[in-house]
Amino acid sequence: MITIAPLTSEDREAWEDLFRAYIAFYERVAPQEVYDRAWREFREGRRMHALVAHLDGKLVGITHFLVHPSTSALTDVCYLQDLFTAPEARGNGVARALIDAVAGWARDRGCERVYWHTRESNATARRLYDQVAVNRGFIQYQLPL
């Protein structure tokens, strides 16, 4: 059985393990300060938010998201920034449940939509994303500062 809930203080170690695995999946490295800052922000729950998924009592999935204004919408929009499921839990509906939970959270707060990015080569995730959302065909560019 999958349960979705906000982070609790007991989740810290398992959450950080999954977040580190997410960062590694995208071939990045982050210093400890990134994890500490994110944890503080998520626990405050004002600017950045997180939900976790438990499967049979074990924390196996995380999602991080935030709300921001949009120049092309009447209301705020929700950006689902990170979504990760432990490899051993994949195929059990964990990612779908997390997306649904974020959508419900955003709907309850009057957001117009939820959106996210993934790598074009992330075929496994894209199979799910193509079932639950619309790919509008945008390409992301970044300008490091």
TrEMBL record:
Keywords, in A-Z order: Acyltransferase, Transferase
Residue ranges of domain N-acetyltransferase in the record: 2-145
GO MF assignments: acyltransferase activity, transferring groups other than amino-acyl groups
SUPFAM superfamilies referenced in this protein's UniProt entry, alphabetically: Acyl-CoA N-acyltransferases (Nat) (SSF55729)
Domain of life of the source: Bacteria
Keyword Nucleotidyltransferase annotated: no
Entry protein name: GNAT family N-acetyltransferase
Upper taxonomic lineage: Bacteria, Bacillati, Actinomycetota, Actinomycetes, Pseudonocardiales
